[in-house]
Write a structure and sequence with these properties.
With 162 residues, the protein is mainly α. It has helices at 15-24, 27-30, 43-60, 65-74, 82-89, 92-105, 112-120, 133-158, and strands at 36-37, 41-42. The chain has one domain (40-156). Strand 1 and strand 2 form a beta hairpin.
C-alpha cells in the first residue's frame, strides 16, 4: 500500500498517482528503496512524501503541481549511502547532492522549473536563490518531511504501551 507519512489516503487511488505512476514505477525511482534516509525511512518513501505534499500544496495555490510532484520524486535521486559519504567527506553531501540528483534526473527530461526545484531544494544550505514559487514550496516541504520521518519512530516509541 502506497501512502505518504501523515496522510490517510492510499496514493494509488488519487489523481496524484495517475499523474506520477509512470515515473514512480521506473527502475531508478524504485531503486531508491535500497537506501536508508533520515534514519528509519527509505529514500523512496522520502521522495514520495515530498512529491505528494508538493503536489497537494502547489495544486491548492494554483501553482504547477505536476512539475512540483515530478521534481519531488527526483529531488534526492542519488545512488550512494549519504551516511558513509558524510563520514569520508564531511558535510559536503548537503551541498552536493542536489547537483548530483539534478544530473541523474536529466534522463527524465526536466523542464527549467523542475531543474530549479531539484537543484535548489536545499536552500539556504545551497546559496543559489529559488527562481520559482514551486521551488520555495519544496524547500519547506522537504524540511517538514525530513522532520516527520526522523521523529516518527521516536514518537511511536514514546507512545507505545508499557
Amino acid at each position: 500500500m502506497l501512502k505518504a507519512f501523515g496522510s490517510r489516503k492510499i496514493l494509488t487511488q488519487t489523481p496524484y498517482f495517475k499523474l506520477m505512476e509512470e515515473l514512480i514505477c521506473t527502475k531508478e525511482i524504485q531503486s531508491l528503496k535500497e537506501y536508508t534516509h533520515h534514519k528509519k525511512t527509505t529514500r523512496f518513501q522520502h521522495c514520495l512524501n515530498v512529491s505528494y505534499y508538493n503536489y497537494v500544496i502547489c495544486r491548492r495555490f494554483g501553482l504547477d503541481a505536476y512539475a512540483a510532484a515530478r521534481a519531488g520524486l527526483l529531488h534526492d535521486l542519488f545512488f550512494y549511502d549519504s551516511t558513509a559519504y558524510k563520514k569520508h567527506r564531511g558535510h559536503k553531501h548537503l551541498r552536493k547532492h542536489p547537483l548530483v540528483a539534478a544530473e541523474n534526473a536529466q534522463q527524465f527530461g526536466l523542464s527549467p522549473l523542475e531543474l530549479d526545484i531539484v537543484k535548489k531544494h536545499m536552500f539556504p544550505i545551497t546559496s543559489a536563490l529559488p527562481k520559482y514559487r514551486e521551488t520555495v514550496v519544496i524547500i519547506f516541504v522537504d524540511k517538514y518531511c525530513a522532520l516527520l520521518e526522523y521523529f516518527r519512530p521516536v514518537v511511536r516509541k514514546m507512545f507505545k504501551c508499557a
